[in-house]
Amino acid sequence: MESLESETITEEIVTFFTTQPVFPQVIDGTIDTKNFLDASRSVVELIERLGKGFAFVKHDVQGNIEKLNKKYLMDPKNFQSLTEMINLEHADGGKVSRDALLWLKRALNFVEVFLGFLIEDFHKNNNEDIIVILKKAYNTTLRQHHGWITQKLFLVVVRTCPTKNQMYSLLALGNDKVDPKCIIQGMEAFVNSLSLNLTVINQFYSDNNFES
Prior knowledge:
With 212 residues, the chain is an all-alpha fold. The protein has helices spanning 33-48, 55-74, 82-91, 96-124, 130-140, 148-157, 164-171, 180-207. The N and C termini lie far apart (77 Å).
């Protein structure tokens, strides 16, 4: 009988975060436009996993990404830097891209804070309800920028989101054998890259008085 040698096969554990591009590395304060937009599209997919009730958030984010992408495709060479693209448009008297990035960064901040709360909850074993976490993230970020009607709409749709266990299953791409710790590790890497990009963008908007 032929002897069998045991082999150790290391396979990458596939989750939502391992299948998505991370936000680009910030080099000398510069963010690559194309890579930033590619990573932002993964946020659209993430929001989609929160349920149909979040369709209005998804479409808003998607719309702002497409506005920025449309501008980028007009001159990919000169618009390689995200902030430079906004500066060049501003110099020509335009502000479509500036406004699109303003609302996109606000939505990204909401996702950043939401995932940050999920990570914190996991490490502290608090097992806080995901609805509570979403509300905290919203109140910390987007609420101040929304009118009364949108604020009330959010309070309604947040009740349609999946449970935390269902969310983990969605992020594990349906593989219930995936340890939640692996999902959190991917989430942490995603949030870290997003945070670095948002720090640069927020500083850029503050320095140029583009917030309003």
